[in-house]
Design goal:
This protein is α+β, with helices and mostly antiparallel strands. The chain contains 9 helices and 22 strands. The longest helix has 18 residues. The chain is globular, with a radius of gyration of 24 Å.
Length: about 600
């Protein structure tokens, strides 16, 4: 089992004895489980034209067999609505526990055909061993649905589902597979407003804190939308491969309480779309697109359509995630053909689709779910397993365990370097505490078995030490020169955390980040340097930051690369314009820098 990783199930005898007491051998299977490579991957044939690389899975191993299935854990799904009567998820829905923001009822079943929340819910908690369909990462967890995306998606609705609403009070995990429509705007939030979010988040679960899991985004190489310039890609085709958007551009992804999740495909590398960034914590499994050429080819009747099929990218035909869909063949991802076909989704894109499928003809399941929207619930499911093993874990404990048990994948990820030799984006780095970190993967791919093992009997991290916001005393603005002459600002932290759990910063510069079309990628590199000398790139050149004020400034960015390093000492922000020639005069300044260090 997962010999490719040379790792055997690590559950200790005490763990198994405690958690498997009374567990009966399951008598019924889930017929589509074999296609769920994200749960158990031995290199089997799945939906898609390529096979997954053996061992690239979320690390369930024997957990389910030992009845570690998320029992007693409630997961809130803040998303589009879940079809609460779906045959493969109904038994796990908390009765009258969901909230429809549109009609103020407990039934969030979508009426608009949007199946995103349904797919997310199934990844987390589809019922297992019931003789139909698929299985969730935590198939005994209980689910609540909050359909804020169907209702317009307001901050008040987020607050309701995160802590303020009556139906949110008993949740243990909150999955958030959503983000900004145009994820290129630098975050703006006051310190008081940040506290007004983080403090009540920390107070949930009796002071242990709900575990908030959030998708990083799907904008590595595409930012756009049908409502803006007919879907034109705002990312320049010739930009360096650093990620057009960055995870720090999504405000909530910088909250200390939030676990920001990147996506990995079935080959064990960054999913083609996955947004990178300094605020990534861990990765889950999102796959690619799950299409199959033979299925599509049989439906293309004109030379033009056949030529269009031939032009499709190879990643379209790599496996995606198999999960639940809206019931029936009229709505959702898996439907019968639509004619005339005006988009690829009007065709059946793989063998699972339509009521003619020889695999499953109910259309109740889809094999095309992807994105960090799919990766996030794989991690939420792992968290549910951890909290079954140890309900006393705080959100900080969960974050720490996930980070320190994650698997380092794609270990040869190389830095991105320009023609002048400037490092634009780092690959894997190792900090002074020995913790590996990548802006593509965070601390690595979440591993359920290792996380549950560590969670059992885990000693709490103890009280949080928070430095509060500290500011650099800049007598005058610092010129932003080239990489040989960057602007620098330093802040000394004293009496703070001996071991870092999180770092947040803010900065102001006069470098351009204009909010006007055409948007222009930045040439500025912003790097944070810890007292131990670890360097973490906060903003890479080639990314596409935009600010309403027109300058490269952000009031909040989370930088995670410093886990377990000492927090006391001199922290330096370094800002360089990689486009400036040697000796060229600076054309922008660094005017402010602030930092907050959290840990124990």
């Amino acid at each position: 089992m997962r010999q490719d990783w040379k790792k055997q199930t690590a559950l200790c005898v005490a763990t198994l004895a405690a958690l498997s007491a009374g567990a009966a051998q399951a008598q019924q299977g889930d017929p589509l489980y074999r296609y769920q490579w994200h749960l158990m991957n031995y290199g089997q044939a799945v939906i898609g034209d390529t096979r997954p690389v053996s061992g690239i899975d979320i690390g369930i191993d024997d957990l389910h067999d030992y009845n570690i299935r998320g029992k007693g854990v409630i997961v809130g799904v803040l998303d589009r609505g879940i079809e609460i009567a779906h045959p493969d998820i109904a038994a796990n829905m908390v009765p009258n526990g969901s909230w429809n923001f549109i009609n103020q009822t407990h039934d969030t079943t979508p009426t608009n055909g949007q199946a995103h929340g349904m797919a997310v819910g199934g990844i987390i908690g589809a019922v297992g061993w019931n003789g139909i369909g698929v299985r969730g990462v935590a198939p005994s967890a209980r689910l609540k649905s909050f359909n804020f995306l169907d209702a317009g998606g307001s901050n008040d609705q987020v607050r309701y589902a995160w802590w303020d609403g009556a139906l949110a009070k008993d949740q243990d995990v909150s999955n958030n597979s959503w983000g900004p429509t145009f994820p290129i705007f630098l975050p703006t939030i006051s310190e008081n407003e940040l506290a007004a979010w983080e403090n009540p988040m920390s107070a949930t679960r009796g002071g242990r804190g709900v575990v908030y899991v959030k998708a990083a985004g799907n904008s590595f190489s595409y930012v756009g939308g049908s409502s803006f310039r007919n879907g034109e890609n705002l990312c320049a085709a010739n930009r360096p491969a650093v990620g057009c958007s960055q995870s720090i551009f999504a405000r909530e992804s910088n909250f200390f309480n939030v676990i920001t999740v990147a996506a990995v495909n079935a080959a064990g590398r960054r999913s083609s779309y996955s947004t990178p960034g300094a605020s990534i914590w861990v990765s889950g499994l999102g796959g690619e697109y799950g299409w199959e050429r033979a299925t599509l080819a049989a439906q293309q009747t004109t030379p033009e359509d056949q030529a269009a099929l031939a032009r499709l990218s190879a990643v379209n035909f790599d496996p995606a995630i198999m999960t639940t869909d809206l019931s029936g063949c009229a709505l959702g991802y898996n439907t019968n053909q639509v004619r005339p076909a005006t988009t690829w989704s009007h065709d059946n894109v793989n063998r699972l689709e339509s009521d003619q499928s020889a695999i499953d003809n109910t259309c109740n399941y889809a094999a095309t779910m992807n994105g960090t929207s799919a990766a996030s619930p794989t991690v939420s499911g792992v968290v549910a397993l951890m909290l079954q093993a140890n309900p006393k874990l705080s959100f900080r404990d969960v974050k720490y365990i996930l980070a320190t048990t994650a698997r380092q994948i794609d270990p040869q990820q190389a830095p991105v370097v320009d023609a002048a030799g400037n490092v634009l984006a780092a690959g894997w780095t190792v900090n002074a505490a020995g913790r590996p970190f990548s802006a593509w993967y965070g601390f690595g791919l979440a591993d359920a078995t290792m996380a549950v093992t560590r969670a059992t009997g885990f000693k709490s991290l103890g009280p949080l030490l928070d430095s509060g916001w500290q500011r650099a005393a800049l007598d005058q603005a610092q010129p932003i020169g080239n990489t040989a002459a960057p602007a620098r600002a330093t802040i000394r932290i004293a009496g703070g955390a001996a071991r870092i759990e999180g770092v947040q910063i803010g900065f102001d510069t006069s470098a351009p980040a204009r909010n006007a079309y055409p948007y222009v990628a930045t040439t500025v590199r912003i790097t944070l340097i810890s007292p131990s000398g670890t360097r973490a790139i906060v903003l890479p050149p080639g990314s596409l930051p935009v600010n309403d004020g027109g300058t490269l400034s952000a009031s909040l960015a989370s930088v995670n690369a410093f886990l377990d390093e000492p927090g006391n000492g001199d922290w330096t922000l370094e800002v360089a314009d990689t486009a400036l020639a040697a000796g060229a005069a600076a054309n922008a300044n660094l005017s402010s820098f602030k930092i907050r260090v959290l840990g124990r």
